[in-house]
Structure formats: structure tokens, C-alpha cells
Amino acid sequence: QSVLTQPPSVSGAPGQRVTISCTGSSSNIGAGYDVHWYQQLPGTAPKLLIYGNSNRPSGVPDRFSGSKSGTSASLAITGLQAEDEADYYCQSYDSSLSGYYVFGTGTKVTVL
Amino acid sequence: QVQLQESGPGLVKPSETLSLTCTVSGGSISSYYWSWIRQPPGKGLEWIGYIYYSGSTNYNPSLKSRVTISVDTSKNQFSLKLSSVTAADTAVYYCARHAIVLMVDYGMDVWGQGTTVTVSS
Lengths: 112, 121
Fold this sequence. Notes:
The structure holds 2 protein chains of 2 kinds. Chain A is mainly β.
């Protein structure tokens, strides 16, 4: 049902770089609406990781970075650490119907 | 440090109304938007809707006919009602602060711990 598509899973060895894509359309990301990213550790509430496409809230390590281009956005994790193993969700606004907020389908990051 | 805490029944019967409250502590409910989000077991996040402290609302079109979100500024609380529930509404329900300031969206920056609601007879 989600209008933002993410790969179900990505994996990498400690120290490696992984990226997660978030593909939308002309009514959300492509319309210029900002993308935010959330990290959800097992059994916990989501936590804001990136806001406004590429900004990190205070306390988020600079290993996490975000970007946006066209109808897609990406989250990159460099220097992957065991504690980064979690689910990651992108989120934006969709102007279709009456306008509403949408989350991506979610991506499970596994540290090998 | 703003904190959010969800409260309400953990078990609701099919066809009845699910009612949850989110209490905001450590800060005022004023000047922010406040969202409800849910996550069915083993699935992803779904935005349910938000309310501004003044009372204006916006709902997910897929749930709009069954959702009501209200705010009580005197108690620093906002609430969710979801009517005619079915097993598909079984989920962890989160409340969150949606930092939209002067029409700039800064994301959902504070979350409650979540509360599990099961729909079953």
C-alpha cells in the first residue's frame, strides 16, 4: 500500500558502506517534499535519523547521511557498526487525494 | 526533554471503538503538530493522522472514515479514536510530535514508546 518503495533488506560487513533507496513519485518526493529517515532498533520506537533530506538531529553520528534526487532519496551508512542493525524507514508527504504523510516500506539492515 | 506516553486498553473487541490517549510531559502541547502512527505485527509503519494544538486535523485517506483525533490542551494530551475495528487494526500504536514549523517539516522528532492493541473477541 505504501507509495514509497524501499528494498526489503541490505547487508554489509562491519566498516563497510551500505545505502538504502527510497523510491517515490511525482506526487511525493518528485514534487519537492522533504524526506525524513527513521531508525527502529528491535523492540523499540522509531527514532528520527535524518530530517529535511540530509540533516542530522543532534546526537546522530555523521556516519549516517541522506540525499535526494528527482523522485528518489537515499540513506547511506558508512563505517557500518553492529549497533546499526535495525529497520530503517523513509517518510515524506504525498499530495494526492487530500494530502497525507507516508512511510516507506522499510529496510532491514543486517551487519554480517 | 519532551516525553510522550500512550495509554489505553490493550484489548478491543471487533466492531468496537479503539481509544488511546497520549500524554505530553516536559513541554507544552502548544505550537506543534501531534501524530498517531501504527505498526501491525511484523509490518511497517502507517501514519494515521495528526492534530495541531489548535484542533485542526489531517487524516490518512485510507482510515479517514473511521478516525477521530482530538486535543485537550488543559491536560497536555491528545487522543485517538478508531471505530469499527477489525483484526487488521491489531498493531503497536505510537504517538509522536510532528515538528512542522512555519510550514517547514522537520520530521517526527519525539516518539512515545508505543502501546500494543489487539482486536479480538
